[in-house]
Specification:
heterodimer; A: mainly alpha; elongated; B: mainly alpha; two-stranded antiparallel ribbon; 23 helices; 2 strands
Chain lengths: 163, 502
């Protein structure tokens, strides 16, 4: 239980740091020059926000826990391993989209994430994901008229048209 | 007004727009049925699709997705006790027990008819009230707008998380902070860009909306997958007949009537939405029910199912009122819609009625059509749609992740944006676990520029003095209401302290 309480304070602390640094960077903003009386310049609104944010995060950080309030059990329970794995796969997908092309990158992503989440049937991993990618790429190119960089698709196109 | 209606009808009957209604309702229903994805995520996922459309079609599509999602949420509430949408939690109270008795079909039919009535009644009110309200709001000037944005933020923070107003406000402030990133409109000073050119236009609204809703909810279901029991239940149970008995209709009618009206007015209020409306309607019907019926509530009561269903649809339509007439979103969902509209170059608000009447009216009319579509097309298709729930989550979740990522990629073509999305989605997941609500964040992000701009103009108009806050009666009234909303928890605890023990 105290672990969850700790998490609350950490987040509040993070928000405090965020507000204070936001305010710091706001102060660095150039204000309208030439000595014009400036009531609402580029830094006014941010400064107000920084002040409110600092105040609120202090409240969240320091306020005593309400008596009788309980932290729900199992709040942090869960499949963190899969979560991190899936997030890593998504980052990988983002990075490989351009070099590998839409077709390969998407197919790999769908298959790998399904596998990561427990799917083991090879037919599904290969077949269904392939079908999805095909449908998608077709839709994107024809219906939406967008061009997605994809060497495999070009290759397929050439092969199918017999060139 | 008749001229406007005809104009709207003309726009609506365009084949593309008709297709938009159909697609929206269908897609919304599918997405709403998936536990974890709600109307906000559904709409966020649709935004990339709307980029090729003109504003009227885009708004019609998004509106269709909205009700579709609420409708779909009811379906999963009834069938598997997993509300797809917060506004359908109250539906589980009596819908699921009915389904467990093997009367799922009856429950679905009750829900469908109630939703239809609620939505139609609200659409009628909208049709009658909106132009009047729009004309009134033409007299609104910058001070009133400023006060209204403050009220909108206050209201959504107050209602978003009962008892956790500090957290909701904090999220609103973070949203406002995020909105200041970019080039300041008035002075062209780059703010918080750290020298990066990509940030000059500010943070992408689409990215933020997708990351904080669709993506983080999908990640949540990776972290805590739906229980095995639910999956087994889905395939085993049959649906049963979709017919209703006369007695059912007789029980439904008064409940639906009252709940529709209640739902509409609650939906109009900024901050309150379908969720609040459905709970309130349930409570009202329960207290109004005669003794013999009261015991049925929670066990499969017809009125107990009909009331929240009518109310949540009515509230969904009602929440369009502030958006269309004042340009101020009243909820997270309409905030996302507003963000999308602004990126099309359409500024909802009183000028919408005057400058782009075809957008204004066609959206309202599309609500009628959408309700009809939901009733006649969706209801018979439920058995097939329910099959979707049987798709194992190992495949479904990667698909959702893929949609979210691709949606953003097709617009920005930046791998960095995708990585940023992942980071934001993870942050949102952590925050949600700690009870920090996301709608205030999105609302703050969308309202931020409006707020700052109107404050700036008000100050310029009033010689840099803050006196405009109390000199203008409308502004003062709005601010008083805001204060009332902010101190709501104090009133509530006082009432509770004085109330009789239960």
């Amino acid at each position: 239980m105290s672990r969850a309480l700790g998490a609350e304070r950490w987040v509040a602390l993070f928000l405090l740091v965020l507000s204070v640094s936001y305010g710091y960077f706001a102060l660095e903003l150039e204000s309208l020059t030439l000595g014009r009386s400036e009531v609402l310049g580029p830094r006014t609104f941010p400064l107000v926000l920084a002040a409110c944010g600092t105040l609120l995060s202090l409240v969240l950080l320091l306020r005593p826990r309400a008596p009788g309030a309980t932290v729900p059990d199992g709040r942090w329970r869960g499949d963190w391993f899969s979560l991190v794995l899936v997030m890593g796969l998504m980052a990988l997908y983002a990075v490989t989209l351009r070099p590998l092309g839409f077709f390969v990158a998407t197919w790999f992503f769908l298959a790998a994430s399904s596998w990561a989440l427990g799917e083991r049937r090879v037919k599904v991993l290969a077949g269904v994901c392939l079908a999805v990618v095909l449908v998608f790429e077709l839709t994107i190119r024809t219906l939406l008229g967008l061009y997605v960089q994809d060497p495999v698709w070009e290759l397929l196109g050439r092969v199918l048209s017999g060139r | 007004m008749l001229e406007g209606i005809l104009q709207g009808l003309d726009t609506l009957l365009d084949p593309l727009n008709l297709l938009m209604v159909l697609t929206g309702c269908l897609a919304g229903t599918l997405i709403g049925m998936l536990p974890g994805l709600g109307p906000i995520s559904a709409i966020a996922l649709m935004i990339p699709v709307t980029y090729g459309l003109d504003p009227a079609s885009a708004l019609i599509l998004m509106a269709g997705v909205y009700y579709g999602a609420v409708f779909g949420g009811s379906t999963s509430s009834i069938l598997i006790n997993a509300p797809g949408v917060a506004g359908t939690v109250a539906t589980t109270f009596d819908g699921y027990p009915m389904a467990r008795r093997g009367e799922a079909g009856r429950a679905l039919a009750i829900a469908a008819y109630s939703s239809f009535t609620g939505g139609t009644v609200a659409a009628v009110f909208l049709l009658l009230a909106a132009p009047g309200l729009a004309l009134v709001s033409l007299s609104f000037q910058s001070p009133e707008y400023f006060a209204l944005t403050v009220l909108g933020l206050a209201a959504i923070s107050a209602f978003a998380q009962p008892g956790q107003m500090a957290k909701a406000w904090m999220m609103a402030i973070v949203g406002l902070m995020l909105a200041t990133v970019g080039q300041d409109v008035a002075s062209d000073v780059p703010r918080f860009t750290f020298g990066r050119v990509e940030l000059l236009d500010g943070l992408s609204f689409l990215l933020l909306a997708m990351a904080t809703f669709a993506l983080s909810e999908a990640l949540m279901s990776v972290l805590q997958p739906p229980s095995q029991e639910d999956e087994g239940t889905r395939s085993r149970r049959g649906i049963g007949s979709l017919r209703l008995a006369r007695d059912d209709l007789r029980q439904m009618a008064p409940a639906v009537g009252r709940s529709s009206v209640l739902g509409f007015f609650i939906g109009v209020l900024p901050g309150a939405g379908a969720t609040l409306a459905s709970f309130l309607a349930y409570a009202v019907e329960k207290s109004l029910a005669p003794a013999r019926r009261k015991a049925e509530f929670g066990r499969g009561s017809v009125a107990g199912l009909a009331a929240p269903e009518a109310a949540n649809n009515a509230a969904s339509s009602g929440s369009f009122v502030p958006l269309l007439t004042l340009g101020i979103p009243g909820s997270g969902t309409t905030a996302v819609m507003l963000g999308a509209l602004i990126s099309f170059g359409v500024q909802p608000g009183p000028r919408l009625l005057v400058d782009r009447p075809e957008v204004f009216w066609s959206v309202i009319l599309s609500m009628y059509l959408g309700n009809l579509v939901l009733l006649f097309l969706n209801l018979p298709m439920i058995p097939y749609l329910a099959r979707l729930l049987a798709v194992p989550s190992q495949l479904l979740v990667p698909l959702i992740l893929f949609f979210s990522l691709v949606g953003v990629y097709l617009v920005s073509w930046s791998a960095l944006d995708l990585v940023l999305m992942i980071a934001i989605a993870f942050g949102a997941l952590l925050l949600r676990r700690l009870d920090y609500p996301m709608p205030p964040l999105v609302l703050g992000f969308v309202l931020g520029p409006l707020m700052e701009e109107n404050l700036r103009r008000s100050l310029i108009l009033h010689d840099n003095r803050l006196s405009f806050l109390w000199h203008r009666p409308a502004t003062a009234t709005l601010l008083v209401v805001t204060l009332g909303v902010l101190t709501l928890p104090l009133w509530q605890s006082r009432v509770r302290a004085q109330g009789s023990p239960r």
